[in-house]
């Protein structure tokens, strides 16, 4: 049960519940933002509104979950710098979760920021963000595993998501309002 503040923001279940409960708020926020931008004559009002809200809504909860403390907060976790060393021992859920952490970033960032409209730039951004998360897990003494395999999968997930949105971010600005 989610009985107190910690249950809502300090557990995987709570963060997942808050994410689901906030979906209507995200949809309304994107609608209002797009409507306001359209009224002011902004370029690509709906595209940028949906991209901004989607980027935040689809990334923040996953990153929040990865920054929750492990079993012994206040203690350094394990650091693994050998590629594919951890990956072979992970279950399917852990692999899928790592692929999804920066998927929204990969999907929406090129739609919102034309300067990121290349697969290479999306991969660099995702790798940088993922590396930052892994460093934070270690520096903040969260008793979490900081692994190069996390960075590789997080980056791959963002790249795959960017390829899914490719047709929209490669569309010329004047034809996608």
Detailed description of the structure:
- The chain is an all-alpha fold and 177 residues long.
- Helix content is 65%, strand content 2%.
- It is built from nine helices and two strands.
- The protein has a two-stranded parallel ribbon.
- The chain starts with a helix and ends in an 8-residue tail after the last helix.
Structure described in brief:
The chain is an all-alpha fold and 177 residues long.
Task: Output the number of helix runs.
Answer: 9
Note the beta-strand portion: under 5%
Distance between the termini: 44 Å
- Roughly what percent helix? 55-70%
Mean pLDDT: 92
Number of strands: 2
Spatial strand sequence of the major β-sheet: 1-2
Apparent shape: globular
The Cα radius of gyration reads 18 Å
Low-confidence segments, given as residue ranges, are none
Elements, N to C (H/E): HHHHEHHHEHH
- Structural class, by secondary structure, is mainly alpha
Outline the biggest β-sheet.
2 strands, parallel
